[in-house]
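Sharing in case it's useful to others searching the archive later.

Someone asked me privately for the predicted structure of Guanylate kinase, so I'm posting the question and my answer publicly. Question first, with the sequence:
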Amino acid sequence: MSGCVNDTRRGRLVVLAGPSGVGKSSVVRELRTLYPDLWFSVSATTREQRPGEVDGVDYRFVTAAEFDRMIAEGELLEWASIHRGIHRSGTPRAPIEQRLAAGLPALVEVDLQGARELRRTMPEAFLVFLCPPSWEALVERLTGRGTEPPEVVERRLRTAKEELAARDEFDAVVVNTDVRATAEDLLTLVLDKSSDQLEKHE
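And my answer, the predicted structure tokens:
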């Protein structure tokens, strides 16, 4: 290992996005299993903490006033209102900057809007679009539960079409045909510039 290069280079920021129902959460869980040392950005949110959630692990839970301050002082790389303004969530800047400055990789999971904003605030970010194997497979995922009213399902499908149309904005597209294989493909992208910083856990 050549220490001279590694001490000066900046880590890679990988941004993962994709349509609702494509399996982002499942892929991220598999990543955590494969590489427990891989660092994921923890979003700040104004919503109430749910039973079982750990502050600083699942989310960083903050008040609306604190969130306003973070926006005003430029502490968020991106943020958005969720569910028509019921609460807000965003990506804190400082932890990511610290990782990248140390030459270590960082992974952020966001929606399309968040990915676009991160492209603007962090031009060096590597954007990965998680794609379903087919439109039919995504429709089945979004409608399979049968627990939501038709208008909600229709809205989700409309949004998914818009998100799929934006795939060319991304640096890489990974098709989620198998969660394990997809997680391994994503790790290859995350470690592209930092493969000597993490040890694979079998």
